[in-house]
Design goal:
Blueprint (H helix, E strand, L loop, with lengths): L2 E9 L4 H10 L3 E7 L4 H4 L3 E8 L5 E10 L1 E6 L7 H9 L4 E8 L4 E7 L31 E2 L8 E5 L3 E5 L2 E6 L2 E5 L6 E4 L9 E10 L3 E10 L2 E9 L14 E3 L6 E4 L2 E2 L1 E2 L8 E2 L3 E2 L12
Parallel strand pairs: 1-2, 8-22
Antiparallel strand pairs: 2-4, 3-4, 5-6, 6-7, 9-12, 10-11, 10-18, 12-13, 13-17, 14-15, 15-16, 16-17, 18-19, 20-21
Length: 298
Amino acid sequence: MRVITWNMNKATIRRKESWEYLLELNPDVALLQEVNSIPDFIQNEFECLYRKAIKKNGQSQHFGTAILVKGKIIKPIQLSSEWDWVNQELNLFSGNLVAAEIILGNEFRAQTISVHSPAWCIDPLRLMEVEVNEVKLKKNSKVWGTELVWDYPRPPRLEPTDKHLKIIFNGETIAEANRAYRVLETSHPPVYYFPSEDVRMEFLTEAANTSFCEWKGRAGYYALQVGEKRIENAAWFYANPTREFAEIKNYIAFYPSKMDACFVDDELVETQEGDFYGGWITKDIVGPFKGAAGTWGW
């Protein structure tokens, strides 16, 4: 028996080459994702089960998820769990997980599932009264294991975080917090803002230069000096932020690229490329990221 799974990248009836190649592969079962439509000549060869995929906001995508069988689809399978909150998610995103009981020509019976799996977290608001300790990752407060920066909003979103954050510079811990904020913006890894009481302010000197952010307002800068080691414009802050970002008034964000080491829950941070943005990249943050040469137009 030959089974294939294939993200067809929004294949339509007009893109015959994809479907013709599928026939060349000659599978007994094909589990397909991101299918816009299935042409008649494919439906003549396979029995098909197709459902529209679902966006994060619950609306239908313009493509779907499918199971194709050279045999018979006996019946769709209603996926379920012992946990009510999982059943709620399965119902909400039913078009992303298409399952069926099938039978092939030689009377072989099987259960199959085709999964369209975008990398977003479950909305925390839907989990406020749910115990998820048995399924969440130990180093990630999210139920889903990754965050896709292209799923972050624009305008950016401000959210509190209880992650353990720490910054080392010239042998000193200059900032350490468990009650910071992070800013999430499309194409960027998170930027963390520390309350000033969690920063060694004796190492910072306010600079004269400023810059302007269309979302947060005018930013001021700090130079950082520990011993003989000094970095200009090492951190920035908003003394009078816009209403949407009022919670981070006078909070301080540091460029991780200018520090010796930055940590999120004891994980060493990778720095966002470029000399303008200050995102913190950890293994649960998925790019590609804006900042490198050639990405400024993103």
